[in-house]
């Protein structure tokens, strides 16, 4: 009996250990393959060259155009999702009828359940033609269109998580504010938002991390052309898109071109790893503020 | 104008701005679904579902992609459910205070934030090359199983956490061992929550495109896969392929395939929501 119990505990622990295997596997794959890449291409060239053309005859290995593309689409997405998502969170929490809140929240969360390839289709066939009527100079593939649609995708991350954070602020704070004669607007922005700021920041960081790692929307709508630019009207390429582009082509396994996707992958991994750990740190540091 | 009036105006205008933003979010969703339905619904017929892909848009169908998605769904579930539930049970019930569990927890939280395409790179090297599975259904399923593992683990833990201690104590009081208590009381009592989490995780897995492309799923598959070691494609990759073509007719095919994919996703999400509601209602500890 006791032996059986021990055996089961060990078996369960073994299953739990598979997540460690995943992490080790990811690090091993990224480091070992990009090690081969950096043995040929010096890190200084990788970081300072302003062109990324591993698939052309004239090869350049500067990651910056891909980083710029990733940051540009992310900034556009957050510029849409942060104000809209936070406003929805405040509106639902402070102004809307509880019944409305209960039905709107899951409806918005449907946005997060839609596969991203579907958003890509939407960006290409609906949003780009619509934007071209407003900005005639907009190219058929652009960071603007992909970024905006990505923004729509991450609205529910910000609105849902921020709303949870606002909802968790103790009732006494809210009542004290109303007791002083403050309007709901003043209560929201001078009391609730500051009190819930750690939760709101965490939601925004999660949204940024999601946008940085997003692949299919940009692969379909942003153009797959590495471009070191801040111009949202022209085609660009992100780190993730480049990996997809190489995977759909026929690059020989083990070649330098093949190894570039791991060098791009480790760059992406470092970005998201830093973002995630900032959010863990904020969560841990500020979690017990009101308990 | 007095300060009070000014504050009232600010309050009012923010309220309307809030309504505007909420309506914006919801109407994007509606426009989005409508535009896809308008473009694609006429294209869906029995032939579309049972035909092979083709160079001619009118003749092309989604059969291999649909069967591929079903294979991926079943295998991913078969791999991720036992591992995920076991990990969740271990972390919640056994590893409360030990260091290994603490380390696992941080590790899982980090894995949940890794972009899906990185899992694709992992699958390409570990499953595809080192374990010699190539670009098979099995390699794809293993990759997606690892991808959704954090979600399954977290929802299992949440569900088990909701089971009150009195149930455990009653079981121990009758002389049951720890595993007997878990397998006969705690896990059945939390099954609703666990199943909800699993369905949501798997519905996410079947919408994934990028990791499978990286692992080596094919873009054009003119045959129906018959076993886990076969090459394959899935619905999202088929959609990606059709969207990437310049001809309008393929765009219509993409819209039609999207309707099918969304139907599968929404049905799974609907079931999960239904189970969650029923479970929350039934349980009043």
Summarize the structure.
Chain A is mainly alpha-helical. Chain A is built from 12 helices and no strands.
| Greatest chain-chain contact | A-B, 83 and 87 residues
Largest sheet of chain A: none
Query: Which ranges of chain B are low-confidence, i.e. pLDDT below 50, for 5 or more consecutive residues?
Result: none
Strand residue content of chain A: under 5%
Radius of gyration of chain B: 24 Å
Q: Topology as H/E string of chain A?
A: HHHHHHHHHHHH
What's the layout of helices and strands?
The complex is a heterodimer of chains A (291) and B (285).
Chain A: H1 2-40, H2 43-48, H3 64-95, H4 98-113, H5 116-134, H6 143-167, H7 171-179, H8 184-195, H9 197-213, H10 216-221, H11 239-248, H12 256-286
Chain B: H1 3-40, H2 46-50, H3 63-94, H4 99-112, H5 116-130, H6 137-161, H7 165-173, H8 178-207, H9 210-215, H10 235-243, H11 248-282
Descriptive report:
- The complex is a heterodimer of chains A (291) and B (285).
- By secondary structure, chain A is mainly α.
- Helices cover 76% and strands 0% of the residues of chain A.
- Chain A is built from twelve helices and no strands.
- In chain A, helix 9 (197-213) packs antiparallel against helix 12 (256-286) and helix 11 (239-248) packs antiparallel against helix 12.
- The two termini of chain A are 43 Å apart.
- The model of chain A has no long low-confidence stretch (mean pLDDT 91).
- Chain B folds into two domains: 3-43; 48-282, MetI-like (MetI-like fold, Orthogonal Bundle).
- Chain B is an all-alpha fold.
- The model of chain B has no long low-confidence stretch (mean pLDDT 90).
- Chain B is globular and about 70 Å long.
- Chains A and B meet through helix 1, helix 3, helix 4, helix 5 and helix 6 of A and helix 1, helix 3, helix 4, helix 5 and helix 6 of B.
């Amino acid at each position: 009996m006791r032996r059986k119990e021990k055996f089961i505990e060990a078996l369960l622990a073994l299953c739990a250990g598979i997540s460690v295997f995943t992490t080790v596997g990811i690090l091993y794959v990224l480091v070992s393959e990009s090690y081969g890449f950096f043995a040929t291409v010096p890190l200084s060239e990788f970081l300072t060259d302003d062109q990324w053309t591993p698939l052309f005859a004239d090869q350049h290995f500067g990651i910056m155009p891909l980083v710029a593309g990733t940051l540009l689409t992310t900034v556009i997405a957050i510029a849409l999702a942060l104000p809209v998502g936070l406003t929805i969170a405040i509106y639902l929490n402070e102004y809307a009828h509880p019944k409305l809140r209960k039905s709107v929240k899951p409806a918005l969360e449907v946005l997060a359940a839609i596969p991203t390839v579907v958003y890509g289709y939407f960006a290409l066939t609906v949003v780009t033609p619509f934007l071209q009527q407003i900005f005639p100079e907009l190219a058929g593939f652009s960071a603007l269109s992909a970024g905006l649609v990505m923004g729509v995708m991450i609205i529910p991350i910000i609105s849902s998580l921020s709303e949870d954070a606002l909802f968790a602020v103790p009732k006494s704070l809210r009542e004290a504010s109303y007791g002083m004669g403050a309007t709901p607007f003043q209560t929201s922005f001078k009391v609730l938002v500051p009190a819930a700021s750690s939760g709101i920041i965490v939601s925004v960081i999660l949204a940024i991390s999601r946008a940085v790692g997003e692949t299919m929307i940009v692969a379909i709508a942003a153009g797959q052309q590495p471009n070191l630019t801040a111009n949202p009207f022209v085609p660009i390429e992100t780190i993730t898109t480049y990996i997809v582009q190489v995977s759909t082509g026929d690059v020989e396994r083990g070649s330098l071109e093949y190894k570039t996707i791991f060098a791009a992958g480790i760059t992406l991994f470092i970005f998201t790893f830093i973002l995630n750990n900032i959010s863990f740190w904020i969560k841990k540091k500020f979690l017990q503020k009101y308990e | 104008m007095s300060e009070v009036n000014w504050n009232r105006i600010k309050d009012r205008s923010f309220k309307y701005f809030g309504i505007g933003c909420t309506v914006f979010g919801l109407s994007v969703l509606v426009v989005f679904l409508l535009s896809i339905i308008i473009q694609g619904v006429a294209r869906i017929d029995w032939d579309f579902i049972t035909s092979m892909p083709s160079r001619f848009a009118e003749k092309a169908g989604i059969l291999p992609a649909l069967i591929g998605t079903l294979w991926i769904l079943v295998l991913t579930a078969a791999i991720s459910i036992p591992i995920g539930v076991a990990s969740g049970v271990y972390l919640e019930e056994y590893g409360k205070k030990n260091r290994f569990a603490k380390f696992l927890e941080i590790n899982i939280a980090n894995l949940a934030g890794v972009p899906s395409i990185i899992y694709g790179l992992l699958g390409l090297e570990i499953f595809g090359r080192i374990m010699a599975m190539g670009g098979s259904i099995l390699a794809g399923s293993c990759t997606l199983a690892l991808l959704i593992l954090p979600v399954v683990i977290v929802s299992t833990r949440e569900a088990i956490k909701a089971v009150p201690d009195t149930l455990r104590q009653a079981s121990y009081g009758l002389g049951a061992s720890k595993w007997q208590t878990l397998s006969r009381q705690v896990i059945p009592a939390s099954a609703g929550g666990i199943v909800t989490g699993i369905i949501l995780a798997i519905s996410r897995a079947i919408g994934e495109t990028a990791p499978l492309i990286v692992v080596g799923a094919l873009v054009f598959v003119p045959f129906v896969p018959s076993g886990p070691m076969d090459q394959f494609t899935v619905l999202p990759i088929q959609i990606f392929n059709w969207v990437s073509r310049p001809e309008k007719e393929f765009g219509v095919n993409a819209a039609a395939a999207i309707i099918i994919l969304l139907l599968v996703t929404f049905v799974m999400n609907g079931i999960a929501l239904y189970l969650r509601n029923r479970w929350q209602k039934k349980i009043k500890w």
